[in-house]
Design a protein that fits this description.
Pfam families: Hydrolase_4. The chain contains 10 helices and 8 strands. The chain is an alpha/beta fold. The radius of gyration is 16 Å and the shape is globular. About 50% of the residues are buried.
Amino acid sequence: MTHLHDIWTAGARRTDMSTPVGTVPLVVAEPSGKAHGTVLLVHGRNGAPGQVQIAEIADAYLGHGWRVVAPELPHSAALPGSGAPECVSFSGHTNAAAAAWDWVAQEWPGQARGLAGHSLGGFAVAHLAAGSPDTHHVLAVSPVLSGRALLMAREAMGPAALEEVRREAPAYFAEMQTADAEPALNRITAPLAVVTGAADGLIPLKDARAYFAAAPNARFFAALPDEHHCPAGEACARALSAALSALGA
């Protein structure tokens, strides 16, 4: 299969979505045949659709016959022109993803819609799925469970890791005390899967398991040995494909 890095440049289209807070670019890739549905693929803090861990997820969906819509969300250091990275926040990231989720529903009404997210994107899609009973499924990769969990993980990594996020993203840091995906996860009726790196220091295995356990219809969990926060490669591709099969995608 052609990898997404090539599909993105050769076959994907780009479009812009207007929101109350500005324009959000979207990257849209179609599978080789008729699409079974559309997945909104949400990157994390300082993420981008072209990053390897996002490309890996999109590749899995394209291989399963799903259309992929990947927004370039505001305030990412990986996306020049997206706004100041220090202005990123849990709520702002989720709200921007929600606008893209609504856009997908308007573009392909009546077709199955799925949600996938990496890191902070996993936090966002939990909230979107909780408010959308028609969500086909949720796939979370290295997902953020809560701001408090992130704080504890960074504290374990040492003072420099904590000071880094305080300096780089003050609004995000302030929301760490209250941001929590667990209540949203408790309300999700769609089947859910989690794929994570067993060696991830930012999202420790216990937090990824807690995210999975919080969803009433959790179907598939995979922890990849020796993988960190941005899993990719053959083992990851196999796990993602198995997850999509378990989710009926």
